[in-house]
TrEMBL record:
Associates with stalled 50S ribosomal subunits. Binds to RqcH, 23S rRNA and the P-site tRNA. Does not require RqcH for association with 50S subunits. Residues 1-64 form the RNA-binding S4 domain. The gene is rqcP. One of its GO terms (biological process) is rescue of stalled ribosome. It comes from Pseudolactococcus laudensis. The lineage of its organism: Bacteria, Bacillati, Bacillota, Bacilli, Lactobacillales. This is RQC P-site tRNA stabilizing factor. It comes from the Bacteria. Keywords: Protein biosynthesis, RNA-binding, rRNA-binding, tRNA-binding. PROSITE patterns: S4. Pfam families: S4 (PF01479).
């Protein structure tokens, strides 16, 4: 599944256009390598996402084309959440 679509379906990022923008600005790493919005996400991949002053690291647990809001957080596991002071 494409990275931007996975971020939207899992609700890590609410809108796909925003997910695409964040990826294309070089703020997402997939298994330690800089990822584009079209990068392929697979089971057990580790995503590192930089939001302003927060770094979120998650492991992919499930890949679905669509999901309910209640089940979205079961698609990933948060490994770490770090605040960065500018």
């Amino acid at each position: 599944m494409r990275l931007d679509k996975y971020l939207k379906v899992s609700r890590i990022i609410k809108r796909r256009t925003v997910a695409k923008e964040v990826a294309d600005k070089g703020r997402i790493k997939l298994n330690g390598i800089l990822a584009k919005s079209s990068s392929d996400v697979k089971y057990q991949d580790v995503l590192t996402i930089t939001f302003g002053n927060k770094i979120l690291e998650v492991r992919v647990l499930d890949i679905k084309d669509s999901t309910k809001k209640e089940d979205a957080d079961k698609m990933y596991e948060i490994l770490s959440e770090t605040r960065v002071n500018p």
